[in-house]
């Protein structure tokens, strides 16, 4: 096996070269437009915060905005697993399910035999069942999802590439089956089934925010919007911080070459599991929020197509690129919830064709996916590192094929 | 930047690694077998000791499972060939199968096959239907490859995955517009439930004969084609190393198109069997079928033709056992549970793999 001197000599130049190149690029690209960039970000933030005032509080558009923001958090979570750590997760819907069911379990009258009330308003205090505070439920959902993420991640540790995709896909389908048939599973007695089967769980508690007299309702969508926006802010901040930390670099090392990363001392098991846990926690946060927002938990919403929907956001936006993923999530959810059903729906009727466009909605969606990928396979806003790889041939396909797989 | 020390334990590692590998090898071989045999064995004991008293019910499960499995086997062949050659999980493949079932369903009506058609006309008509269906789905699969995968040959690995999903959605929408959103029942042309003879007390029906009669010849011809013919050799060479194959004068693009053609044709044949055997089709059936067939391909060892067929049959039996004994609503949970166990015990599948990507 070589002496320490030999290994040092062999490995040292490679990271040094990579490092200096990266810094050089960052230096040349950043200096010129830094102030302009910062200004643009502040303006965009201001616009995002004030946007709801332009619309009616019950408008469908704000509704779609809230959904889009929740999907941004979802996509950011999946991006940690797929984009940063390079672990292709096709069962992300599992965390949506666990997150949404956390709301069903901890913030509804579903377990009416129990009586647990923590930090809720007077109205909920009198109802039977488990009722926890909104933020507590979200926190619990995140913790449960992180545990589920680690659990799902464990069998994939030895596997690579597409095999990880297969195992996570299988877990996603199994969790969907448990959601649909969970009324048959009663490990804690007949009064406490796992889920309510096809009927779903509802109504869920209306979230009570601090400093507000009334709980959130579907009639006033602005507070929902701001809560969702806050979640996005937290998620973006967390993801940016982690990406630039030791852990984030370990993920990227893992993605680029697992063997090299391991030989440089990256602990594979811990690093992979942390990626799963963080991605799952973000998914759980968004899932719980979507549960609250929908006011019911519908078992049939936890299908494989959801995983694909979120994965499309990540890939179409730009794998590994945070702003790309945000853009991809906003774009795809608006296409799905606003453009196709609301805007384009009546177009065929106007030009004399006898059908509604929403019959074609997933065909159009699929068409857009194909077009988007064929025209821009690296995504709308590709990550800087990946762009370099693609344009300059640093690690061309053949070498990547072997390493990323 | 990189100031990681060499871990002091590195010297002691190789020996433990070797014993671990030996242990893992045994565990993976027998662990997988034990997992697969567990379910039938449990029900065999259950039948023998319970009210049943004999194994006829298990035999029925087995026969029905194998018939169903032959459908999955035909679809799985398409997955495994495509994966072997371009390492893509072709998500649109299940929907190609669905279009195949729809085509077969429509063609039987167009050709004029009804419940009163005589046996000779029926065999001839179905053969014609099979041929046309296979041509339709095969050429459709080639077209999909041309439009959605070929432009992305040099793109990041996940890009064609998304276009595959996109095409899956498009095909589902085609099915939806073609036949509407509800389940459509197919006329029971072959009288699939009609028992012809018994083997060891287990009834064999028309449907089972159709499934075997279509699948076995197709698989035999396909195996011969891939192992014996020049084009088959080109396919195997491309699967092993596309660049080296190109250097040997093989037209890689044509070879890939051929692979998609074969995969699509097999899916079309599976669609015909499914339509006649299950006598109902719906626009969203391709997705579930695709997942199950994909599981079969993985179970056999993805990239491996024999493995896909074996995996399909095994999945068929598991599925039938789960459906008959545990309850229809748990079928996919059981199937996917098996998939995870196989991935844990033996990621390279039952037969082993012939792809570039190491498990």
Automatic annotation (TrEMBL), chain A:
One of its GO terms (cellular component) is plasma membrane. It is a multi-pass membrane protein. It is found in: Cell membrane. The keyword Protease does not apply. Its main location: membrane. The chain crosses the membrane at residues 36-55, 67-88, 93-112, 132-154, 161-179, 224-242, 273-294, 300-317. GO terms for molecular function: branched-chain amino acid transmembrane transporter activity. Keywords: Cell membrane, Membrane, Transmembrane, Transmembrane helix. The keyword rRNA-binding does not apply. This is Branched-chain amino acid ABC transporter permease. It comes from Paraconexibacter sp. AEG42_29. The lineage of its organism: Bacteria, Bacillati, Actinomycetota, Thermoleophilia, Solirubrobacterales.
TrEMBL record, chain B:
GO terms for molecular function: L-isoleucine transmembrane transporter activity; L-leucine transmembrane transporter activity; L-phenylalanine transmembrane transporter activity; L-valine transmembrane transporter activity. InterPro entries: ABC_transp_permease, BCAA_transport_permease. The keyword Nucleotide-binding does not apply. The chain crosses the membrane at residues 27-45, 65-89, 96-114, 120-137, 158-178, 209-227, 256-277, 289-318, 330-349. Pfam families: BPD_transp_2. It is found in: Cell membrane. Signal peptide: none annotated. Keywords: Amino-acid transport, Cell inner membrane, Cell membrane, Membrane, Transmembrane, Transmembrane helix, Transport. GO terms for biological process: D-alanine transmembrane transport; L-alanine transport; L-isoleucine import across plasma membrane. The keyword Signal does not apply. It is a multi-pass membrane protein. One of its GO terms (cellular component) is plasma membrane. Belongs to the binding-protein-dependent transport system permease family. LivHM subfamily. PANTHER family: BRANCHED-CHAIN AMINO ACID TRANSPORT SYSTEM PERMEASE PROTEIN LIVH, HIGH-AFFINITY BRANCHED-CHAIN AMINO ACID TRANSPORT SYSTEM PERMEASE PROTEIN LIVH. This is High-affinity branched-chain amino acid transport system permease protein LivH. It comes from Paraconexibacter sp. AEG42_29. The gene is livH_3.
């Amino acid at each position: 096996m070589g002496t320490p001197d030999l290994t040092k000599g062999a490995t040292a130049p490679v990271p040094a070269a990579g490092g200096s190149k990266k810094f050089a690029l960052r230096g040349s690209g950043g200096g010129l437009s830094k102030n302009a960039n910062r200004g643009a970000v502040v303006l965009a933030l201001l616009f995002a915060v004030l946007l709801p005032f332009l619309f009616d509080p019950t408008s469908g558009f704000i509704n779609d905005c809230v959904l889009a923001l929740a999907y941004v958090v979802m996509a950011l979570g999946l991006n940690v697993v797929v984009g940063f750590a390079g672990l292709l997760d096709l069962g992300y819907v599992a965390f949506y399910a666990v997150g949404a069911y956390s709301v069903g379990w901890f913030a509804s009258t579903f377990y009416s035999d129990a009586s647990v009330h923590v930090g809720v308003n007077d109205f909920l205090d009198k109802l039977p069942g488990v009722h926890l505070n909104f933020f507590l439920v979200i926190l619990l959902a995140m913790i449960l999802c992180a545990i589920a993420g680690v659990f799902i991640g464990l069998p994939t540790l030895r596997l690579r590439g597409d095999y990880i995709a297969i195992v996570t896909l299988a877990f996603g389908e199994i969790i969907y089956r448990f959601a649909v048939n969970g009324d048959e599973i009663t490990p804690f007695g007949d009064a406490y089934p796992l889920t309510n089967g096809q009927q779903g769980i509802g109504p869920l508690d209306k979230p009570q925010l601090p400093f507000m007299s009334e709980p959130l309702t579907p009639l006033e969508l602005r507070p929902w919007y701001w809560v969702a926006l806050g979640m996005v802010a937290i998620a973006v901040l967390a993801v940016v911080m982690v990406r630039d930390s030791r852990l984030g670099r370990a993920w990227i090392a893992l993605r680029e070459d697992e063997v090299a990363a391991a030989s440089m001392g990256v602990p594979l098991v811990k690093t992979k599991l942390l990626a799963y846990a963080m991605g799952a926690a973000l998914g759980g946060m968004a899932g719980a929020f979507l549960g609250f927002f929908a006011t019911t938990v519908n078992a049939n919403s936890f299908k494989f197509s959801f995983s694909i929907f979120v994965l499309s956001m990540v890939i179409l936006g730009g794998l590994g690129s945070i702003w790309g993923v945000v853009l991809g999530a906003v774009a795809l959810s608006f296409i799905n919830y606003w453009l196709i059903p609301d805007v384009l729906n009546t177009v065929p009727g106007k030009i004399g064709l006898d059908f509604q466009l929403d019959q074609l909605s997933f065909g159009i969606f699929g068409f857009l996916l194909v077009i988007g990928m064929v025209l821009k396979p690296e995504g709308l806003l590709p990550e800087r590192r990946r762009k370099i790889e693609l344009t300059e041939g640093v690690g061309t396909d053949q070498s990547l094929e072997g390493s990323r797989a | 930047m990189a100031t990681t020390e060499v871990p002091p334990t590195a010297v002691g590692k190789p020996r433990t690694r070797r014993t671990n590998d030996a242990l893992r090898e045994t565990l993976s071989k027998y662990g997988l077998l034990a997992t697969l045999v567990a379910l039938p064995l449990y029900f065999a004991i259950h039948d023998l000791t319970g009210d049943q008293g004999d194994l006829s019910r298990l035999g029925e499960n087995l026969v029905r499972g194998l018939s169903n499995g032959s459908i999955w086997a035909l679809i799985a062949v398409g997955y495994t060939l495509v994966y072997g050659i371009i390492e893509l999980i072709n998500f649109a493949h299940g929907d190609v199968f669905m279009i195949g079932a729809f085509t077969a369903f429509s063609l039987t009506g167009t050709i004029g096959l009804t419940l009163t058609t005589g046996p000779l006309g029926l065999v001839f008509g179905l053969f014609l239907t099979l041929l046309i269906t296979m041509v339709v789905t095969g050429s459709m699969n080639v077209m999909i490859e041309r439009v959605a995968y070929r432009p992305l040959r040099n793109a990041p690995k996940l890009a064609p995955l998304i276009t595959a999903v996109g095409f899956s959605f498009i095909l589902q929408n085609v099915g939806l517009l073609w036949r509407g959103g509800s389940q459509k029942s197919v006329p029971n042309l072959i009288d699939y439930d009609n028992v012809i003879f018994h083997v060891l007390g287990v009834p064999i029906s028309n449907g089972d004969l159709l499934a075997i009669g279509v699948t076995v010849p197709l698989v035999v011809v396909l195996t011969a084609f891939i192992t014996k013919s020049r084009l088959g050799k080109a396919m195997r060479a491309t699967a092993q190393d596309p660049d080296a194959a190109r250097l040997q004068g093989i037209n890689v693009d044509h070879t890939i198109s051929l692979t998609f053609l074969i995969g699509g044709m097999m899916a079309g044949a599976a669609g015909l069997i499914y339509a006649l055997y299950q006598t109902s089709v719906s626009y969203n059936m391709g997705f579930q079928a695709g997942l199950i067939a994909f599981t079969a391909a993985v179970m056999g060892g993805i990239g491996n033709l024999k493995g896909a067929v074996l995996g399909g049959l095994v999945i068929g039996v598991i599925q039938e056992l789960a459906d008959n004994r545990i309850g229809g609503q748990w079928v996919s949970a059981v199937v996917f549970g098996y998939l995870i166990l196989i991935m844990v015990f033996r990621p390279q599948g039952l037969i082993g793999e012939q792809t570039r990507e190491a498990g």
